[in-house]
Fold these 3 entries.
Entry 1:
Amino acid sequence: MNLSARRTPRLFGSNLAPVLLAALLNACAGTSQKELAGADSPQMAQAITGAMAWLARELPGEYGNYAQAWTQAFEGMLHWNLLIRPAAGNHDGRQWFVASQMRSGDPAAARHQLLAFDRVDQRLILRFAPIANPEAWLSGTVGTEPAFQPGCAIPLSFGRQQLAGETRAESCRFTGNQGHEMSLRKDFAFSPDNIGIGERIDGLSNAAEGVAQTFRFQRRHWYRGWAGRREESDSRWRLSQEVRLHDNGGELTLTDAAGLPLGYRLKLAVVPWKEDQPAILRLDLIDAETGELLNYAWSDADSDSIGITTDKVQVGLRRVRPE
């Protein structure tokens, strides 16, 4: 199904037509399905094994939807963070992860799910279940099986460095709090730096209206560097402590070596230059007391460095690349 054609209410997203999900679904279908059509079981098994190993390497990490919240703020989209960590223990060749989604500024209001990637009948599938004790799954001390919703497994298409899939609404059904029969459409897409998650709940008895939401998460990348402020009294430079920021709306109030404030705050984010335009890496210099934007710099979204130079303030950041 083409997700961009799905009619959903304007509740959380701009039109809840996740471009990333649709693109990845189309791309995956165009590569893996054609290439593996007619493949014998060993070939398919090898492809799924490779996809599982790739997920184990690439999926864990820190993500956020800052760019989505920035462009859709007028529609009520909030800034969410997503942390994905591998679950401990032997899962018989399956790849299990703990996904924790938290609203920025409110880590206590977290939603935790277990994501289980498995091979069933020569297909790669994703099952999911809410969990209340993420630390037990991370440490391997949990003593019960996860409560996977019957009929809600997501068959995944996978291609070159990407995978995507969605539940089947006719089989993913459950009874809501009001006793109404409901159906869930859940979409999942992943490429190395992006995760798309879409959900729509419909009341099959027509007693409940469709409720939909879409999140587009981007992997956090970290930058380190320095900053300094020129003192008006003697023109000497007062250096800050080490600056460390991520590019998903990361903020830092600058302080000197003694912990005293320098009067400025930095903010770093990858955001579209304009809506529907390519993303840029933007560094903001903000007055720490008033919140006024004093200056900003921008560079390519994947840039290795970015900085600001004025008569009073200088900032220099470099991206921390994995070794």
Entry 2:
Amino acid sequence: MMQAIRRRGQRTALVIALLCLPGLNLFADPLHDAYWEATVGHWHGQSTYLDGALDYRIRDYHSLVSIRIDGDRYFEREIKFYPADVARQIGGALVRDGEGLEVVAEQEGVLTAGSASVLITRQTAPTAIEGTATSIIAVAADTAVIRVVVPGQDADPYRTLITMPTPGKRHRITLGLVDSQANSAAAGAAPGDLRGFSIFRETRVSAAELEQLRADYRQRYKIGAVMAPDGDGANAISRLD
């Protein structure tokens, strides 16, 4: 009897030790794992941005997204190329007339238990929104939802749907919503009303193709300045010339 109890105790201790091994998650959901595996890589996007009245704000611009996962850490970098008619509004005086603007944003996060979602722990402007909590939630093997939550508000200021109908295609729709503070909202708008939305039509590319596309878009948009995070994560604008 005592020997049997000791053997059961040894097996229990072994199971506990295995569960505590770094990087081992016996409760990971294959559905969630499939999503994170599918989203890793480089994506080339064509985008458009409309306001709450469904009028074009930016009819055509482009983006390049790189995603990698290291253990339970999530890393994403997005580069957007804005045309001259809006570049000055974003970049200020360092953007000259007729020039476009390149904007680089980064975010990092941690996969939660079971890998159902990524909790974003670091964002750089303009992606970062002060006082919000952002999470990427895998809802299917090819689909996820991003929630940007403001504690105490009646509506999220942003929600994004990401879906990958095939391994080489990814589409994103980001909704800008009116929160309780009615930020950037039209007169009479209520929490949850649409402020605007962006659509991204994306294709998987290689690392070499991504770098070539970046060089091509710098020429196409006549990029004269780049907005990118500095060592402290704050935005810094620098000239390319």
Entry 3:
Amino acid sequence: MPANTPHHAHRQIEIIRDELTLMLTEEPKLAPHIAKAMTALNSLEHTAIFDADSHPSRRQRGPKQAHTVEGYRIERNSDGSVLAEYRSTDAEPFRCPKPIVEATAVELSKLKQSKFIDLFEAIKFAMGERIADYHVRTALRFMKHEGLVLHERARFSPARPGSLRVAVMKVWKKLENEG
């Protein structure tokens, strides 16, 4: 996440607050100084989060929409088939291996509804290996783009009952035939 966002600032402030609290438990004699630092930190947090844009009462929720996605294609490489997410910029497309797309569909179906981190951990466990989080994010954006997944209140869920994996593989096959 870029360092100039309110979310990043909030996270950094949380880290500082946690460290100051730890210092207080280890060195109680520093309490007056830590209290002063906490007051300044609270003021800074308010400025960073609520005064960052012209709408102080409105905080952005959830990830930004990927307005620049032009489409998806299935490509083949030495490792097999991959989903490629093309954007309107000249940037390289995000690519996600087929097994991760399938595992994302299977694990989200099992969980019914999930925050990203819980889904990501379930996929890592199911696959038994380290995977890049952007692969899972790409798979989820693809499924959302195709109307197969809902993303509400920071939770993902299948859009319809039934096998999400089967629905995803139908779209995959259609894209494969187009390419």
